[in-house]
């Protein structure tokens, strides 16, 4: 009974990892287009892969115990080791990206916003910037003055706007023509600070879940070795 409880716990843990990976990609996934590298998304995809493998191998472990076959247990052990290595890679990627997240945003976010906003073929970035400014109630990369360098704001297409309409506290037609604090968001640190905190929180969750499930895999490998020694040799 204890054996099946362990495998059930593994399956639940795998489902949790899978859920965290999907949550990381789905929640405010528009922001990924604003990042210079794909490390954040890759870490989430690795979590999804690891979570799916944990669930599948959990059922494999149950079958191995029921059939009392050492060959099945050996296969289960191999998959546990593979999952552990995958999660180790995800954890390293998350840690490395966490360390350089601030520098990447400071170096690239302002350039991405000012050069690509409302430009032909850049609809994804435009949508991401609008959502970023509305969700986090901010305006500009560092502050609203960043938009003075925007290709869009300097063009005739801006219609006299000094900031995009998504900077406004209440969005109305052409509201971006006034940059008074009563009309637009004036947040210290701008959108960089808000986005950096958001991504850092997600990376910490990825790291914590990865470490937790990696420890579970280690326990699983030890447990499998013990079962392997107890089950008689497979006659096949």
From TrEMBL:
Protein name in UniProt: Tetraspanin
Keywords, sorted A to Z: Membrane, Transmembrane, Transmembrane helix
Transmembrane segments: 43-66, 78-98, 203-227
Entry-linked Gene3D superfamilies: Tetraspanin
Membrane topology of the entry: Multi-pass membrane protein
Main localization category: membrane
Subcellular location: Membrane
Family as reported in the entry's similarity comment: Belongs to the tetraspanin (TM4SF) family.
GO cellular component: plasma membrane
InterPro entries membership: Tetraspanin/Peripherin (IPR018499), Tetraspanin_animals (IPR000301), Tetraspanin_EC2_sf (IPR008952)
Species per Swiss-Prot/TrEMBL record: Poecilia mexicana
């Amino acid at each position: 009974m204890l054996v099946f409880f362990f495998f059930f716990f593994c399956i639940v843990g795998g489902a949790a990892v899978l859920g965290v990976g999907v949550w990381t990609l789905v929640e405010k996934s528009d922001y990924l287009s604003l990042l210079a590298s794909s490390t954040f998304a890759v870490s989430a995809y690795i979590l999804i892969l690891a979570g799916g493998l944990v669930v599948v191998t959990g059922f494999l472990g149950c079958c191995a115990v029921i059939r009392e076959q050492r060959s099945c247990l050996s296969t289960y052990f191999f998959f546990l080791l593979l999952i552990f290595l995958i999660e180790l890679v995800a954890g390293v990627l998350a840690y490395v990206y966490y360390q350089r997240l601030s520098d990447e945003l400071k170096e690239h976010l302002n350039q991405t916003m000012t050069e690509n906003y409302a430009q032909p073929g850049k609809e994804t970035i435009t949508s991401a910037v609008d959502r970023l400014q509305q969700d986090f109630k901010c305006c500009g990369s560092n502050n609203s003055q960043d938009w003075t360098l925007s290709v869009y704001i300097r063009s005739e297409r801006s219609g006299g706007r000094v900031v995009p309409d998504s900077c406004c506290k209440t969005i109305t037609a052409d509201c971006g023509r006034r940059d008074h604090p009563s009309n637009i968001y004036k947040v210290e640190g701008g959108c960089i600070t808000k986005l950096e905190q958001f991504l850092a929180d997600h990376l910490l969750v990825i790291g914590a879940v990865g470490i937790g499930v990696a420890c579970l895999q280690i326990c699983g490998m030890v447990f499998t070795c013990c079962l392997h020694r107890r089950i008689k040799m497979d006659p096949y």
